[in-house]
Amino acid sequence: MKKILSLLGVAILGGAITLGGYKMLFNENAVVERSISQPIKTVTASYNPVLNKVNETSGSVDLTVAAENTVHAVVHVKNTAIRTQVNPMDIFFGNGNGARKFEQVGTGSGVIISQDGYIVTNNHVIDGASEIEITLNNRQKYEAKLVGTDKENDIALLKIDADFDLPYIPFANSDNIKIGEWVLAVGNPYNLTSTVTAGIVSAKGRDLEGNSSIDSFIQTDAAVNPGNSGGALVNTRGELVGINTAITSKTGSFIGYSFAVPSNIAKKVIDDLLEFGSVQEAILGINIDQSEEDIDGVKIAGVSNDGGAEKGGLKSGDVIKKVNDVKISKFSELRGQLTAKRPGDLVNITVDRDGSELIKSVKLSKKDAYVSRKLGVVLKDISKKEMKKFDISGGARIVTNQNKNLIYYGVKEGYIITEINKKPILNASEAVKEIDATFGAGAPIYLEVINLDGVKERYAFR
């Protein structure tokens, strides 16, 4: 026991001596320091986004206003067409006439553009329809009348009669939208009514490979699926900037890209259909040099005699850089600007001529020559004098003929086509549309023409 107490006393005495020595040697307070890793050094790149401004901008975008202002002005379009199906067994065994009629139903979207019931949609939504039914967002249904169509720009104009003022979407200037700007796609995909999707403008003046119709689409990443065709593409103010028309997809469903006809083109087509019954196409009167693909602009290969370009001072070799204040980088952008204009309009064309920038005022001409690649002919409108001479209401003169069948049967340049498939033809544009829509792939074509002696002739061939 005495030994244990002795060891304990020695331990206490040693601790006291150690503590006293520490106090004498280290008279300052102790500090505990946390070990932290040094921050990684950063190098400023040539591109330095201002993140604060980006966050402020994205946070300030309110898409609810645009959605509320547009969702009631986008309608569901139901297209009912009567089709004929041939049963080869009936023909073989003689059990019937070999054909039966059935209804085919298609759906899409449309945009109300006036209080009195005018609706714009895509031509392919109502093509071949025998009956068109419009369903409003409040479920009310109306039968629609087809006012006019433009297959080339894929636009159709419908009209319904309602007993109240309809909500509508005003047009915006599609030239003013910018890449990166927020847009909404409003439509009825897969029969889901009143669907709104959001995205940004991905590109402008987009031409789709292999597309022979509209060549100046607005490209967006807003989700567009089957049924959205003919619906609205609107900006954050709820103004119409485009008509949703197409997607590129291997599956048939949206994979990230959608395309819309710019509102400036749609509005011009609608105005022409209401005023003239057909689209008035405006041209500069030039041929394009497409051999130089890397050029920034559109190079002129030649100008037409007495055309607007020649009278305005444009020359072969000029590179078109702007139409009015809109920059032109490629042909599709030039075509889009001209499609939104009318014959007789004055436009300022900025060109690069041998390194010098010049501005020329050009009066646009009316397109009067139309090419049918299927039939291999170039057609022009006939004059009022010719209408009176032959007592016809319209027609299309053959100015170039490269079709072997027509040449074989003796149809010559100068002949006037008056009917195609027993349908009267009013002008060259209408004739080409009818030919290209019905002829080819074994389908026959019936032509009524007036020959050089003023005598009517009829031909039928495949």
Task: Walk me through this protein's architecture.
The protein is of the alpha+beta class. It folds into four domains: 70-159, Thrombin, subunit H (Beta Barrel), CATH 2.40.10; 174-275, Beta Barrel (Thrombin, subunit H); 282-366, Roll (Pdz3 Domain); 370-461, Pdz3 Domain (Roll). Helices cover 22% and strands 34% of the residues. It has eleven helices and 28 strands. It has helices at residues 2-25, 51-60, 64-70, 88-93, 123-126, 263-275, 308-312, 331-339, 384-390, 404-409, 428-438, and strands at residues 74-86, 99-112, 118-121, 131-135, 141-143, 145-150, 155-159, 182-187, 195-206, 217-220, 232-234, 240-247, 258-262, 282-283, 286-288, 298-303, 319-323, 326-327, 346-353, 356-363, 365-366, 369-372, 377-381, 396-401, 416-420, 423-424, 445-450, 456-461. Strands 5-4-1-2-3-7-6 form a seven-stranded antiparallel β-sheet. Strands 22, 23, 24, 25, 26, 27 and 28 form a seven-stranded antiparallel β-sheet that branches. A hairpin with a 4-residue loop joins strand 6 and strand 7. The model is unreliable at 22-58 and 210-214 (pLDDT under 50).
